[in-house]
Structures are given as C-alpha cells and as structure tokens.
Amino acid sequence: MAKTSYLSPAKINLFLHITSKRADGYHNLQTIFQLLDFCDEIKLSVRQDGQINRTSGNEDIPAKDDLLIKSARALKIYADCSLGVDISIDKKIPAGGGLGGGSSNAATVLLALNELWQLNLDEKILLEIGQTLGADVPVFVKGKSAWAEGIGEILEAMELPEYHYLVVSINKHISTAEIFSHKALTMTPVQRKIPDFSRLS
After folding, report:
1. Residue 136 is among the residues annotated as catalytic for this protein
2. How would you class 112 by CB atoms within 10 Å of its CB: exposed for 0-12, middle for 13-18, buried for 19 or more?
3. Is 11 a catalytic residue?
4. What is the pLDDT of residues 104-140, one digit of tens each?
5. Which one is catalytic: 70, 76, 136, 142?
6. What angle do CA 113, 119, 121 make, to 5 degrees?
7. CA 119 to each of CA 22, 54, 80, 81, 133: distance values in angstroms, whole numbers, following the listed order
8. Given 11, 43, 76, 91, which residue is catalytic?
9. Which residue has the higher pLDDT, 27 or 4?
10. Count of H helices and E strands in the chain?
11. Measuring CA to CA, which residue among 37, 170, 165 is closest to residue 94?
C-alpha cells in the first residue's frame, strides 16, 4: 500500500507553573501550550498481516521504547485491530529539547491510524489512549494551542496571536523526569486563571 504522509508539530510552553506534587509521582501544573509550524514528517503504510514495523528514523531509540511504535500498538490493542503498519519518520524536532516531539509523534500516529485503519474512534477515546503514552500527548491529539492544567491533560483551547519564535537547540537531551525530580524545582502553589494571561489571547 502507498505511504501516507502526516506532519507532527512541535510545541513550546509560553509559561510553566508547577503547583504541587501528586501522590502518583506526577506534578500538577499550569501552562499554555503553543503549537508551532515546525514539524517532523511521519509516513505510514498499512499492512494486512498485523505487524507494526519502524522502517526508518529514530534509529537511536530501541523500537520497544519508541513512542511511534508504542502508540500504534496501544491503538491496535484497544481496537482489537487485525491490521498493521510500516512507520518511517523524518525527524526534525530535537529529542529531549522540551518541544514535545515524542508526544506529538505518538498523537499523530493515533490520529493517522484511526483514519487509515478505519476505526472511527472518537476524540475522547484517543485522548484516553494518548494520556497513557505521555502527559503532553492529549494537546497534540486536540491539535490546538491550549491552556493546560492537571498533568497537562485538562485542556481549554486558546486562540493565540501569530508570533514568530526563534527556537534554539543546544544539541543536548534533557530528561523530563530528571527535571521534575530535581531538588532545585520550585513550585508556585497560587492557582492562576486564564484572564491573568488574557493579553496572550
């Protein structure tokens, strides 16, 4: 089957407040996710034999840890789908740079395979599957810049003005888990409201 191409966008956080640590080890936060027109390109080709393969890209990530593969497998299991897929990626978003590349890739695969496998799952289900893959996946499933709370899964879409952003990569992978567990992490328990940032909307 011919390959179908999808763009997988990056994001930045216009601000980030960590409000508390949860019993499950995650942190509650408040942020605004701004989606960018800076994208990875993912190509998918449906297989009839049920196999899920990564054909090119992300070679430095073991397949079992690759969110491209994990996303496809999670959707296949949920939907009890007999089809498979070949996945390739042209990676432009730097890994570990805080731009949400892996989460975006996972969401893009969910959305694309829901279409290509003709599963017709609604957004609520895709959001639920996405949340099991990563806290930032839901905003990419929604596909809109948003005010976010909780661990990032409570979203309210925002229409933000168009700006140009200079994104500089220092070519260094920074672990999200390490950042959130670092002793220097500060918390801001005061809960903000969207009107506090109305100048951005």
Report:
1. yes
2. buried
3. yes
4. 999 999 999 999 999 999 999 999 999 999 989 999 9
5. 136
6. 95
7. 34, 21, 10, 8, 19
8. 11
9. 4
10. 5, 6
11. 170
